[in-house]
Every structure is written in C-alpha cells, then in structure tokens.
Amino acid sequence: SFPIQCVDGELGTAKDLLFDDESWRVQYLVARPGGWFTTRKVLVSPGHLVKPVGQSDGGSFPVVLTREQLKKSPPLESDAPVSRQYEAEFARFYQIAPYWGAMPVTPERAELSIHELKMKEIERCHVRSCDEVIGYQVSATDGEIGKVSDVIIDVSTWKVRHLVVDTGNWLPGRKVLVDIEWILKFCVENRAVEISLAQDQVKSSPKFDPENPVNRSYEVTLYDYYGKPHYWE
Description:
By secondary structure, this protein is α+β, with helices and mostly antiparallel strands. The chain has helices at about 65-70, 80-95, 110-125, 130-135, 200-205, 215-225; strands at about 5, 10-20, 25-30, 40-45, 55, 60, 125-130, 135-140, 145-155, 160-165, 175-180, 185, 190-195.
C-alpha cells in the first residue's frame, strides 16, 4: 500500500507483486495508478523498480517512470497471475461478469472440452501473486503445519526468498520461515503448498519474529538448524 513515487511525483499505490514459482523472480509490481477509488491496475517490470523506502508503517515505492508512463503501463490482464486466470476462465465458461469488470457475454455457454483445455493451460502457468498465496494451507511431508501469512522478497535481487508460515492452529503464536527451495508444489485449486520438511523439524525450528528484519545472522541459524546449504555462498 506504499504510494508510488514516480520521477516527477507520486501517483497511486503499490498493490501486489507477481512472481514466477519456477525461477522465483519477481515479474511485476502491480500498481493502482488511479489511487484508492479505481479498480484499474497496471504492471511495472523489475527494471523500473527501486528499493522501497521506509518501513511497514510508512514509506514509498520509487519507480523509474514518469507519472504518464505509469498510467500507460500494461494492464494487469496482460500477464495475470494463476488465480486471476482461473477466475477469468470460470467467468467466461459460466457467462458471469468477473468482479473486477464487465466482459462480453456470448449467446451460448462454451464447450466443456474447450473449458478443460483452457484449465490445463492455466495449470502450466507459473505466475503467482503474493496476495494469492496468503492463506494457502502448508503441508509438511507428514501432515499440515499451518498457513502462509507473508512472502519475503530480497529487494536487491527482486527474488522471492522465503514464505512465512503461521502455525497458529498447531503451535499457537508461532511463525516460521520456509525457504523457496524447500517447496515441492503449489496447488491453486486447493490453495495449498507442500514442503519437503517434516512436522517435527518445523516444530523445533527457529521462531520468526515479523517485527525484526530477516538478517544474515538469523538466516545462518535457520539454515544450520535444517542442515541446509547457505544460498548466499
């Protein structure tokens, strides 16, 4: 929700980040250039992004674009995340207007075979939204451990580094980090994530405090606990 700081002044707000769940690279910032009272959203590539300024309680998101360039950036639908593609296809198939805007209504419902083909194409898409994965159920190799509550991104490389898992229903008041390399699978239909760790491992892992930054000291403790190689080496 940081305001977007263009080279010639503020315009709109940052709403989301899209990433590829194979390369784990941020593909776009999703911005709302019209402010809070419009639903139009546009995409800003990482080449135009600058490290955010300030903390979670206030700051700005600089971009190397003019206000006019931001207004004319590609719309969200030009490279939608998996969740938006699913919603759009169901809206098309059942002839209902999606919540984000009107769509043409054709006289007859689409053929089931075409619908199934489109759904398979969407399943091969790897574009995820940070907002989309919040709330996904997280399963270890031997059972559920909690839900995704946040995504940690390294803004020096614009790469997703960790998922924050809230183990509230299992271990009240505890949050842990899961490196993206320990993720086995995302399932958009079930809103679920599978990881390659066991429940007992996660239960005793170093606790994550969202009030403190993810620094190298904490990461060393985390990776050494799991016996995992240090990604920075």
